[in-house]
Amino acid sequence: MTEVRPPAAPSAALWERDEELAAIAEAVDVLCADRHSPGTLLVLRGEAGLGKTALLAETRRIAEQRGCTVWSARGGETLRTVPFNVVRQLLQPALVSMLPEEAREYLGDWYGIAGPALGIADPGDGQADPQGVCEGLVAAVRRLARRDWPLVLLIDDAHWADQETLYWLAAFAERLADLSVLVVVARRPGEITGVSARHLDAVAEAAGRPVTSLSALTPEAAAGLTRATLGETADAAFCREVWAVTGGNPYETVELLAKVQDSELEPVEAHAGELRELNRSARGGGLVARLEELGIDATRFAWAAAILGDGITVGLVAQLATLGHEEAVRCAERLRGARILTVRDPASAGPDELEFVHPLIETAVYNSIPDALRRAMHGIAARIVTDSGRGAAAAARHLLEVHPDDDEELVWQLREAAREHLAVGAPDAARRCLERALEEPPRPEVHAHVLHELGSATFLTAPARTIGHLRTALGMPGLDGDRRVDAVIRLSQALLHNDQMEEAVRTVEAEAARMPAGPTRMRLQAVQFMWEGVHAGESLTPGRSERLAQLAATCTGRDNAERALLILRGFDAMMRGENAEEIVEICDRALVNGRLAPGLGWTDNEWGVELLLMLASSYAYTDRLDRAEALYSEALQAYDTAGWGGGHLVLAHAYVGLAHRRRGRLEAAENSLRESLRLAERVGRGLPLYWTATCNLVDTLLARGHVDEAWATAERHGFAPPYPSTVVLPDPRSVRGRLLLAVGRTKEGVNELEAAEKAAAARGHHHPVHVFAAADLARALATEDPARAARLAVDLRRRAERLGTDTAIGEALRVAAALETGQRAVRLAGQAVTYLESSPCQYEHAAARIEYGVLARSAPDLERGVALARSCGADGLVERARTELATGVGLP
Q1: Distance between CA atoms of 607 and 562, rounded to whole angstroms?
Q2: Alpha-carbon span 811 to 833, nearest angstrom
Q3: Integer Cα distance of 222 and 216 in angstroms
Q4: To which H or E segment does residue 69 belong?
Q5: What angle do CA 595, 769, 549 make, to 5 degrees?
Q6: Contact (Cβ atoms closer than 8 angstroms) between residue 341 and residue 353
Q7: Is 564 exposed, middle or buried (0-12, 13-18, 19+ CB in 10 A)?
Q8: Exposure string over 648-682, b if 16+ CB within 10 A, otherwise e
Q9: Contacting residues for 264 by C-beta, under 8 A, at least 6 apart
Q10: Is 0.85 topped by the overall pTM?
Q11: Whole-angstrom distance, CA of residue 364 vs CA of residue 305
């Protein structure tokens, strides 16, 4: 227990903080010992006034004494709506000190993504992806941390940090293991709920050590602090009352003792009764009364400072409080003398900036402003910010507080602020602006447009809200032409993401029926066919494939609506198992000189990622893996370059993994799919993209022969019924059935494969490689029901020959060989090898070669099969071949 002030402790709030200080010193020592040491995260939690800020200040002192670079930032109660506010405070000093060219070169590809969020680059015209911006910020800090090692990051009042900063902090905290940096976060318990609270909880979990919860001073420490401040003559009864009045809160104790000194009260038992009244004057109503005693001008100055929240300078406050400069200077001095304002640390702010002595004082002053006056002052502050040329987004936090008054200009400003927020990757901030614009309210001719913009802003974060906003907008006058069509398509996308597939289809179908023949109607019809095409249930509209084929037959690919219909027709034909050559010819017509047309790129918003994945997958399952790989890789590169994360990056990695799996590069496939699943965990379980990553990883692990790991992955990630309502490649029921067979749950596996066949047939999906249930089912039934197995094999071969790819025919011949004996089995296995040798799918070729080698007792074929299996990373095939060799064939 610390009863006397430690020699290195400049703050009274550091009393009884020996354990915390030791942990901080140890963390700094670890950081400075080796630039390759793992990063450390410390979380300090405590109620207001318990000394969190003092501990951060001491961390700075210790770190700077050891030669560390220290960057700091602080959340603000009135600044929580300002996106990237805290991360900008943290990083801007380091980046602003660079020349623009230097910053651009240093951040590289991330400059255009993270730069606008940090305020060092102009935003683009489109809507930035929040996940991509977050990744860009993580990358920026990682690069700066390597440059400025040993680096310490201090974040105070994290409970009041903006949501965008907390999103970044949670992501950054997860990756500290391979980055030598010390992060210290101070926060109050509680205070926030919802998404921001979840981000803060994630930060605490990433710390890897218990959160440090600060406690109040003990009576003994309060007595020691009292005597250190007032003199050793302070008697025990007076000291006990100091502790009782303040509850051992260090901040309140220091403020109370300052009041005792100011009042020249003798610290003896006879005066202990006066402490409660003195304490009341330092907080709440007492603080407000004390402020009023300083005069109306000083009060207006304090109110204006509280409205501003940050960047508080005498000149700016004078503008807002309508004070002359000299009078404003005098007010600032009076407020500093009364310990309400203080000069801000120049290390983290401008040399002339002021701040409140404590957040408790700032909150009390802000809440003391009469409601009508507070709203009016925010309006004036918004005008000052706008007149300074900092833009609508900078003024938005003030605009949000202005009283609704049917102000057309305010609606325009809030819409402009929303656009600026979306451009830097802050959709939640845009949502707040547009919701406030609706309260104004907008003019009738503008109202639907605001709702449309609001629906777009909430699309990534709250599909259900988007549905409500867009439905309302479409029911009002004002949305016409392309804007209306865009709103209808966005509504259908939101319904799709909200698992309301039928409504998504009906929405675009009804709008298309209203349109005359032409490109617009064709665009809507293409979207309708697209949603029906990704639906995993039975066909929503009878005769869909026939109607799609008829419509696509009229398309030459002259515009993107026609190209979209050609892609959809190609994908539908692939899923139905039609002739591969014809499928490829249809898909090729959707390209321009072999490439994606302008407006149909991976980062173009009009059509969405689903359409292009359909195109690439049509190539992948018609043995044109070179074209499929090129498209998948192009997607990954496009999203990396544009900073698009979240679902887009999940799908890009998943489909790159699918291409590797089809090629037979199983180890590369596993790496891509694990990265996809890691990203998918952050986006959310249960979504179609999560199923895509999990399904392909399980399939790849089975191909590698890692059965136990495949089962563990399926269990860990919920790879079991009920299945998603959208199509997943390959068919998840088929993969699940194969998995059950592999772990010895044969009856369950057979049931799952039968269900897969039934579901595929109901949908008209007869592709023998995408839905491979029939092949596995035939093998599983070979002994129990050989007649049925034979019928399945015959049907499988018929479907394979209709498709006409080497892979499909070779796989069908492998199944037929497995059901035969003697020379017929050898002949069929040899034919399978011939087809699969010409196929781009090396894993299937390796399996066929090994099977033929066993049946034909051919050591050269087994030897070649083993070499192929090793190159694929198919450990299971290699082991099987070794077993066969050991039991009779043998290598020379």
Answers
A1: 12
A2: 9
A3: 9
A4: strand 69-74
A5: 55
A6: no
A7: buried
A8: bbbbbbbbbbbbbbbbbbbebbbbbbbbbbebbee
A9: none
A10: no
A11: 12
* CA dist., res. 720 & res. 781, Å (int): 23
Whether the CB-CB separation of 262 and 288 falls below 8 Å is answered with no
Phi-psi region of 685 (alpha: psi -120 to 50; beta: other; left: phi over 0): beta
- CA dist 138 and 201 (Å) reads 18
* CB-CB contact of 433 with 417 (8 Å): yes
> Which two three-digit tokens encode residue 694?
């999990």
Share of the chain above pLDDT 70, in %: 95
Q: Which amino acid is at 606?
A: E
Q: Return the higher-pLDDT residue of 844 and 233.
A: 844
The packing angle between helices 806-818 and 786-803, to 10°, is 170
Task: Give the C-alpha separation, 283 to 359, whole Å.
Answer: 11
Closest CA to 195 of 127, 114, 123, 130: 130
DSSP 311: S
- Reading the block at residue 174, the tokens are 């997860």
CA dist 605 and 659 (Å) reads 24
| Structure tokens, 393 | 């987004």
Alpha-carbon separation of residue 708 from 223, 678, 876 (angstroms):
64, 20, 12
Give backbone dihedrals phi and psi of 547, rounded to 5 degrees, phi first. -65, -40
622 near 574, Cβ under 8 Å?
yes
Average pLDDT, the chain: 89
The radius of gyration of the chain's CA atoms, rounded to the nearest angstrom, is: 34
User: How would you classify the pairing of strands 354-356 and 341-343?
Assistant: antiparallel
Kindly report, residue by residue over 598-649, the tens digit of the pLDDT: 989 998 877 778 899 999 999 999 999 999 999 999 999 988 777 676 788 8
**Helix (H) or strand (E) run with residue 786 in it:** helix 786-803
C-alpha torsion angle, residues 773, 774, 779, 784 (rounded to 10): 110
Backbone angles phi, psi at 584, to 5 degrees: -65, -40
Terminal Cα distance for the chain, rounded: 79
Give the number of other Cβ atoms within 10 Å of residue 108's Cβ: 11
- Over residues 377-420, the pLDDT tens digits come to 999 999 998 888 888 998 999 999 999 988 999 999 999 999 99
- Cα 854 from Cα 850, distance rounded (Å): 6
Phi, psi of 41 (to 5 degrees): -125, 120
Q: How far apart are CA 768 and CA 814, in angstroms?
A: 13
Evaluate whether 3 touches 224 at the Cβ level (below 8 Å): yes
For residue 771, give the nearest of 743, 788, 796 by alpha carbon.
Answer: 796
The confidence score (pLDDT) of residue 9 equals: 34
Residue 227 CA to residue 236 CA, distance in Å, equals 10
- Is the CB of residue 116 less than 8 Å from the CB of residue 423? yes
**Bond preceding residue 786 cis, omega within 30 of 0:** no
Q: Is the peptide bond before 722 cis (omega within 30 degrees of 0)?
A: yes
* Spatial separation of the C-alpha atoms in residues 85 and 306, rounded to whole Å: 17
372-377-383 Cα angle (round to 5): 135
DSSP state of 605: T
- Three-class secondary structure of residue 95 per DSSP: helix
Q: How far apart are CA 467 and CA 465, in angstroms?
A: 5
Q: Which of 541, 506, 545 is nearest to 527 (CA)?
A: 506
Residue 652 to residue 693: CA distance in whole angstroms:
10
Structure tokens at 594: 């072999």
Write the DSSP assignment of 247-305 as a string of letters: TT-HHHHHHHHHHHHHHT---SGGGGGGHHHHHHTTSHHHHHHHHHHT-HHHHHHHHHH
200, two tokens = 């803060």
Give me the amino acid identity at 220. Answer: E
3-state secondary structure of 593: coil
- State mean pLDDT over 189-197: 82
Q: Which amino acid is at 117?
A: A
436-439-440 Cα angle (round to 5):
100
